[in-house]
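User: Fold this, then the next.

Assistant: Folding the first:
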Amino acid sequence: MSYQIDPDVLQRVAAKVAGLTTDTDEIVMHAVELLADAYPHLIDPGPGRWVGSKAGGVLGKVRFLYFSAREYVVIFGSPTGTQGFSGRYKHVDIHKFLLAGRIDSYDLESDETRPLPSLLPGESTCLQRGHARGLTIAPGSWHIEYGRGAVVTTLPFAMVDTLVMSLELESVRRSTAEFTALLRRRLRR
């Protein structure tokens, strides 16, 4: 099965922008430009729309960059910090490439009582299929998130908390509009 996105490219982008500046807007903008340079047929470097997202209690902002049935790429983060549940995806691996800030996590099923090593700018981690973590995202943390597998199976987790627990219909509407725009763009090519 071939994929369009190479995690090694995402890792290089994160390493390149980490520590360039403390201005997170600049970091995100530069990361999107580098991703668009690497994948001009998939990622639009133009200004995107941020959408509120709450999944597993993790509240933040997401910018959708690429979405297909088998892969997605987003920028996610929070200016003030957040914590919650990673989700458990049976059919998708979730990679995180930290651009700024810090993410602390722990394995929910492990007999280990210590946290996993902190994720720092320029570093990456992968939540393997079927695993789950508790996590804390420090204030000012932003990362590239890449999902690989049966992406549609992630949508209930990504939307239900926002819709049912928060009753935040506008964020669900905006997310749906962003998914639709990305899919239309793919179909036009």
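Now the next one, as you asked:
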Amino acid sequence: MSKLKQILSMIKFEHSIFALPFAYIGMLLSNHYNLKITILITIAMISARSVAMTLNRIIDYKIDSLNPRTKNRELPRGVVKLKEAWLFTIISICIFEISAYLLNLLAFKLSFVALFFLITYSYTKRFTWLCHIYLGVTDAIAPLGGFVAAAGYLDLNIFYLALFVAFWIGGFDILYSLQDFEFDLKNGVYSIPVKFGPNIARILAALFHLIAFVFLLLTMYVYKLNYFTYIGAFIVFGLLVIEHLLVDPKDLKKINIAFFNINSYISIVLIVAFLLGRFVNV
């Protein structure tokens, strides 16, 4: 149990709250849901994220060992061994595939596509500054997966929500990478700040979040949701503004508040907004 606790700390298990609400929203928008589906989606999402995060730590092991910001993570410190991380990854993959199989055939088939993105996104920063977009696309699987898991088919309208997630995560990942600008520049790690400079990177991150907001509004429009969801959307817009104000390029100490707190609030606000939008008649 002590070792499991260390592994869960390594992958920031509590951050599952970022992705889970969007799988649930995808399920809600499908109009096909029950307790069994909800439980299986939860298991699938948590295990999928565990695969992605553990592989990220394994793949970035050497980079993390050199980076002053990450050298105290569990793998570089030796608190968690590589073989233990690999074992946890294999177990998580098995749980993910079993839960997808128990949901429906299409979910099972598409689970291998999801795995491809979960496994490969950690490599992208080694060869392209588009790594932030690739991460956003990977996280955008959450609402698509939630919809398919519940409905057994894929609706094109759910891609609006997926695009919101892609640009939201991609935009924030650009901001988050500002912390490692000097290290990445010296060590050949690709990112938008390295490619275009921190100032342009902040502008692009803001543009990403503006585009994300548009796709969020489009999601609400095409699914004909009530005004509660729009109230939630504008609260999210306000939180995104606060997020950008917190990220001062001269002092990045507050970036973790933007990441841990603001993004958690965004996820919670949206799941509440979509629940009200789906179940409250006005």
